[in-house]
Protein: Large-conductance mechanosensitive channel
Amino acid sequence: MGMLKEFKEFAIKGNVVDLAVAVIIGGAFGKIVSSFVNDIVMPPIGILIGGVDFKELNIILKEATTDAAGEAVAAVTLNYGMFIQNVIDFAIIAFVIFLAIKGINNLSKKKEEAPAPPPPPAPTASEKLLEEIRDLLKKQ
Structure:
């Protein structure tokens, strides 16, 4: 029963719950970024380089054939276009995360740089006189 209690404490700790939330949100964010790259970024880039669709870029290593039973055997291809697509996905994700962390850091700096409370007002002339009298009495 002790192991079950330890596991429960571990699973309910804030760090584990935060990690689970981060993984779920990260998965959803990945879909958003993939859609952004595939549907918004890549079409203009494809037009700029002559209407090329990156997903279709490949090198055929072995042509498609049919085997003795008459079934089609798919071609063996080196899909370097998908690699380019994934590199661009990664670069955009990394840049967005950089911007998010930079924004969070700027917010935390602003909190740290919040104006300090104003210094207490300078003592009045009568307070200064009383302090001098106190100091003289301490010396005696």
The chain has a mean pLDDT of 82. The CA atoms of residues 132 and 138 lie 10 Å apart. The two ends are 73 Å apart (CA to CA).
